[in-house]
Amino acid sequence: MEVLTPKEMGQADRLAEQAGRSLWHLMQAAGGSVAREALARFPDRRSVAVLCGPGNNGGDGYVAARLLRESGLAVDVWRSAEPKPGSDAARAADAWKGAVGALADFTPQADMLVIDALFGAGLARDLDGAEREAVERVKAAGSVVLAVDLPSGVSGSSGEVMGEALQADCTVTFFRPKPGHLLYPGRALCGEVVVADIGIPAGVLADIEPQLWANEPAQWRHALPRPKNIAHKYQRGHVAVFSGKMSATGAARLSADAAARAGAGAVTVLSPPDAMAALATHLTATMLHRFDAPEDVLAFIKERKVHAAVCGPGFGTGEKQKAVVETLMHESDVPLVIDADAITVLSQDLDCFLAVRNSGEPTLVLTPHEGEFGRLFPDLAENKTLSKVERARLAAARAKAVVIYKGADTVIAASDGRAAINTNGTVWLATAGSGDVLAGLVAALLGQGMPPFEAACAAVWIHGQAGQREGFGLTAEDLPQAARKVLAELISR
Ligand SMILES: NC(=O)C1=CN([C@@H]2O[C@H](COP(=O)(O)OP(=O)(O)OC[C@H]3O[C@@H](n4cnc5c(N)ncnc54)[C@H](O)[C@@H]3O)[C@@H](O)[C@H]2O)[C@@H](O)CC1
Ligand SMILES: Nc1ncnc2c1ncn2[C@@H]1O[C@H](COP(=O)(O)OP(=O)(O)O)[C@@H](O)[C@H]1O
Ligand SMILES: [K+]
To answer: Per-residue pLDDT for 357 more than 70?
Structure first.
């Protein structure tokens, strides 16, 4: 599903108006869907308090208040400021025939349903004054909260907290989700998100051309690899994975196993001399090849027709490793997944690494977690005005790469501006080696010919689904087999 920034949502609103859906009618539908969710989800609440702000978010609140009262509930409205005279919100406020209290006088109770219609997409600065104090009181009282569009204080474009924010049990948003619903901490503050249809025609999206999606199979399933019946193993993708020294071979094996389970026809671990024995005792279907110097790597990639390579997991960051990364970046056009230690190596001189790599723009996928992202792109990481999506996009454009900016809300971004936010991750994936598996999944899909952005999105989703299947106590070793089952289901449907 497309994700719209608050600005794009404003555009949707205007386009809907041009198509004959007035804001007044959209507001009635928005308030109606809030009232419906309130009745369906919280039927046992003895009283309802609707907190209305000065804008259209408040307007939705007045509509919901009227409808809830008409359905027989005890409803009170508390407002921080009057809506602008002549606005649709003012008209909605006029249609509310009950009393209106000043927000400063509102005393929340634990058994009340609070409908938060203070601010939505229009939140422009940190919460302060009466609104902030009301938010603090509601939090302290522990009332159940249903947020209209967004919990007040959550930025719709970044999910960041602006000063203070409500914790909602449920958030009803309209037409399409916004980044603030999917990016942390906003995602957690929204509670369950309901996306309500308020009559904005989907056709407006053709004009808006959104470049952000919630990561879902519908976006990339068509591009999943489906080998021809007569394919031989090297036509199903040959993936090479670089191993580190003897005491650090497990990470490469995890990537290699993941690549094989995600359908690569052949997987080879490239090993420095001292790790050969350790790897030989552990590898079975996966092949093993020794390299002494970067030239050996180049020769192997060429002669054995490697379709994608993973470099980084357990690799090391010394001079020898740097020389390999340099060779891969500067002298080879094999599609590359650069993870972990290889990211650290790149970050020592990113501009130089990219300058040469960029000349032909061969496929590059970078998979930094938060710490590695900060090392690679310190200026972007420190820029607090940017959302995680914007940081990932700028990084992707700068590196001419697909960037998988990992975390609980992994963002995948391409250099052309497309981006996706992943939502199916689980905390059980926060375990050593889980990222190594992800790198192997990406390489497998790239090696089988899937386009890089789609391959990265698919790998992240499959990884998330595998984590959910295995759940509590999973270790990274469990993920490749689970990923295989997820992928098998995706391609059989
Ligand atoms: N875009 C659409 O298609 C629709 C939007 N609707 C509602 O309209 C909302 C957006 O309405 P608005 O653009 O009026 O924005 P809001 O109602 O979210 O708030 C904007 C108002 O608050 C002020 N403000 C911003 N931050 C403040 C702060 N920290 N302290 C004090 N005042 C602050 C602004 O100056 C502005 O007057 C959405 O969240 C949604 O609830 C719905 O009515 C239906 C259709
Ligand atoms: N709390 C979380 N919820 C969902 N996914 C998570 C969470 N924490 C980490 N992950 C995912 O787990 C993986 C961890 O990768 P990484 O940090 O590289 O670990 P490692 O280096 O141990 O392999 C990433 O795909 C990341 O998105
Ligand atoms: K709100």
So the answer is: no
- Whether residues 255 and 293 share a domain: the answer is yes
Q: What is the pTM of this model?
A: 0.96
Which residues are within 5 Å of ligand 3 (an ion), measured at CB? 116, 120, 147-148, 152
Asked if pLDDT for residue 275 goes beyond 60, the answer is yes
283 in the same domain as 430: yes
Pick from 150, 179, 209: which residue ends a domain? 209
Please give the backbone phi and psi of residue 102, each rounded to the nearest 5 degrees, phi first. Answer: -80, 135
- Tokens standing for 324? 């390999």
Query: Does one domain contain both 222 and 79?
Result: no
Q: Which of 375, 406, 421 to mutate to test the pocket of ligand 2 (most atoms within 8 A of CB)?
A: 406
In tens, the pLDDT along 218-240 reads: 999 999 998 877 778 888 899 99
Chain centroid to Cα 342, Å, comes to 23
The distance in angstroms from the start CA to the end CA of the chain is 19
Residue of the CA atom closest to atom 9 of ligand 2:
430
Q: How far apart are CA 129 and CA 80, in angstroms?
A: 9
| Consecutive H or E run containing 404 | strand 402-405
Does the CB atom of residue 438 touch ligand 2 within 6 A?
A: yes
* Same domain flag for 141 and 247: no
- Statement to judge: residues 32 and 66 lie in one domain: yes
Ligand closest in space to the Cα of 115: 3
Nearest ligand to the C-alpha atom of residue 117: 3
- The answer to ipTM > 0.90 is yes
How is 149-218 classified by DSSP, letter by letter?
A: SS-TTB-TTT--BSS-----SEEEEESS--HHHHSTTHHHHH-EEEEE--S--TTHHHHH---EEE--GG
Specify whether 302 is located in the same domain as 191: no
* pLDDT tens readout for residues 48-98: 999 999 999 999 999 999 999 999 999 999 999 999 999 999 999 999 999
pLDDT of residue 230: 79
At 330, list the tokens.
């500067």
Q: Is the CB of 435 under 6 A from ligand 2?
A: yes
Spatial distance between the Cα atoms of 251 and 267, rounded to a whole number of angstroms? 14
